Amino acid sequence: MKKHNYLFPAMVLFSLISIASVAQTAAKNATRNDLLLSLGYFNTNNQTQYLSAKAKTKIDGKFQMVSGISLSFYISNDSSAANLLGKAVTDAKGNAYLLIPPAAQSEWKKSVKQSFVAVFAASNLYDETKANVQIAKAKLKIDTAADKKITVTALELKDTSWVPVKGVELKVAVKRMGGDLNVSETQTYTTDSTGTISAEFKRDSLAGDAKGNLVLIAKVEDNDTYGNFSAEQTVPWGIKTEYLSAYDKRTLFARRGHSPIWLEIMAYSIIVAVWGVLIYLIGQMRKIKALGA
Amino acid sequence: MDTLAKQQITEDLLPQKFGKQGQIWVAFLSVLCLVGFIAYCRQLSKGLVVTGMRDYVSWGIYISNFVFFVAISLVGSLITAVLRLTDVHWSTPLTRIAEIIAVSAVTFASIIIIVDMGRPDRFYNLFIHGRLQSPIVWDVIVITTYFFISLLLLYFPLLPDLQILLKYKEKTNKYLYKLYTFLGSFWKNTPGQISISNKAVNILCITIIPVAFSIHTVTSWLFATTYRPGWDSTNFGAYFISGAFLVGAGGVVVAMYVFRTHYKLEKYITDDHFDKMGKVLVMLALLYLYFNVNEFLVPAFKMKKPEEEHLLGLFTGEFAPVFWFAITTAMIIPILILIFKKGRKPKPAFVAGLLVVIGSWFKRYLIVTPTLLHPFLPIHDVPASYHHYFPTWEEWSIAIGSLAGALLIITFFARIFPIIPIQETITETEEHEKA
Fold first, then answer.
1. What domains, with CATH codes, occur in chain B?
2. A291 and B200: CB-CB below 8 Å?
3. Distance (Å) from the C-alpha of residue A233 to the closest C-alpha of chain B?
4. What are phi and psi of A145, to 5 degrees?
5. Contact B131 A289 (CB under 8 A)
6. Tens digit of pLDDT for each residue in B373-404?
7. Residue B255: strand, helix, or coil
8. Is residue B24 scored above 70 in pLDDT?
9. CA of B182: which chain A residue's CA is closest?
10. Over 80: is that where the pLDDT of B181 sits?
11. Domains with residue ranges and CATH for chain A
12. What average pLDDT score do residues B294-319 get?
């Protein structure tokens, strides 16, 4: 009997410890989700280079963007302080951007290929997380002919010279306010053995600036080898648009003294009519006074 | 009609000196005005920061008060012009009450709009740089016009009474006698003068109706021409005018009861007047209720996203207590009281009128402020106080002071001039006896 007396409390104690351990693990899992980082390289118009990182996590089986976390960006795979390019905080969509600073030029020039890494330092919510990207240095060159033919050449840096690359998929478009508009029905082009593609500009009657200029853009997106890069060129293929100022016109939103004529006629007629009646009545009052004199 | 009866009417209706109650009333109103003035001086020296108005709520209870004053002033055109032109004679004892309410209200509507300006010293810019396209300029023009018409409509019918007042020199003091002399010594009651005066009053009655409609329509356009939830309505002009007639009629019923009780005018402001005004009030309350249903039910049925927050704020949210209080006190309860004959007796009618006036003041607040707290672009990155509006003591004091000021004008007018037209009452009694 005595043996049973010890066994029961021991079982209860063991059960409590097990439950507490499971609960603790569950609590740890509930609060510490995995952070998923992805990193991309961008080169806009062969000029502006920047890195873009996206941070997300999976909560209740759904991906959610992680905002407000600080990421450190490094050039090369070595995340030592000497290679630090800078830090950026993710926005509401979980994106963080960092322009590659001129100080990184010497490291950039060391090789025809380049690696970058984005690092999130461990916090209460997430463990330390890294994302890498390696790119081969490449650029695009746009040539145009008078008959609205566009030739785009994709070039890769090999040692010290730029050589054409075959099999690169790219888009050719016109920059518009709401996004890029393809120059023809063809969505994408793939470079041939000479590294070029030919596209035809079929967007007639497109409004340009005051001189009729449009900006052509050729871009490579999410390429596994080269990342994202683009080139732009201004061409006079649009329709000249003239800014028509309404500043001196008579409108409802114009400044003082420039109200529409119909409004002036209406308003002044009413004012003259009503105040005419009032002045007439004041005259009648004088008449009443005269009659009583 | 014999001379004795005429004399009785005249003596009954002559302005009376303030009694003890009157003096307390004037002192009370003067204190309220004084506190309001002190608060305004603080606002002038420290700026609009002493108010609860911030970046989003830039129109608070000052503009609510302005809309209320403009609304109540419309009663002048309803009682005097509409009923006169439709040959309704029972309203004769009420015309002067209605007109003085109109004049005092429109005076304080103009004053309160200047109070709302952070820099009143720049008021002249409205005239120098005002744009004809702006509803604010239309409002300035139409309020000025309405004020002058109301003043003339008060003055012309007063002329025969001034002659009577001059005859009773012993019942007045020398200052008032001088005032009566200045204003009406030329009135000799000649057929020529009567004819011109009647013609002038008829012209004024015709003129005041479109101007009165304009004054409140333009006031509604101050809101409706702005694209905002709650204001973006094509119905606003009619909605405002129906509400204005309601609050004006409510104000007249309250004034009728106070003057009848205080000056013992039961013979002139009879139960029948309350019965008739009660019916008018029910009709106007139903009309305004109809416009309210239109104004809220239609957008609530569609529940467009930008309107949703505003409407739910009124129906069940932050403003719900004020909203339902205003709807109930300004319309539902007065209808329930006045729809029954017993409810149209003087005392219950007075209570109903008072509820209409109080409820209508809060209704104006609901028209102005909640919309400003629900702009199309969400409010963010601002101090917490910007999300809400509650008037400061300075605003309450100024608003209450302005209401007291309007009542003070009415009180002094009743002290100086007959609040019921003497000559018109005599003439109508004579005509009634002849008939």
1. 3-428 (1.20.1630.10)
2. no
3. 37
4. -115, 165
5. no
6. 988 888 888 888 888 999 999 999 999 999 99
7. helix
8. yes
9. A289
10. yes
11. 35-136 (2.60.40), 138-235 (2.60.40.2470), 246-277 (no CATH)
12. 92
Give the tokens for residue B51. Answer: 């108010």
The answer to whether ipTM exceeds 0.85 is: yes
How far apart CA A207 and CA A215 sit, in angstroms, is 11
Alpha-carbon dihedral angle through residues B304, B307, B309, B310, given to the nearest 10 degrees = -160
Token representation of residue B238: 């009619």
The residue of chain B with its CA nearest to that of A264 is: B132
Within 10 angstroms of residue B46's Cβ, the number of other Cβ atoms is 11
C-alpha B350/C-alpha B254 separation (Å) is 5
Preferred mutation among A271, A278, A282 to probe B, highest tally of B CBs within 10 A: A278
Q: Which residue has the tokens 């509409």?
A: B82
Give me the mean pLDDT over the A171-176 stretch.
95
Select the residue from B125, B126, B127, B131 to test the A interface by mutation, using most A Cβ atoms within 10 A: B131
Using the Cβ of A273 and the Cβ atoms of chain B, whether some distance falls under 8 Å is answered with no
Q: Quick one: average pLDDT of A218-243?
A: 94
Select the more confidently predicted residue: A25 or B355: B355
Q: CA A87, CA A131: separation in Å to the nearest integer?
A: 14
Nearest to B186 among A255, A278, A289 (CB): A289
Give Cβ neighbours of residue A270 (< 8 Å, ≥ 6 apart): none
Q: Which residues in chain B are closer than 8 Å to A273, comparing Cβ atoms?
A: none
Q: Which residues of B touch A280 (CB under 8 A)?
A: 203
CB contact under 8 A, B207 and A264: no
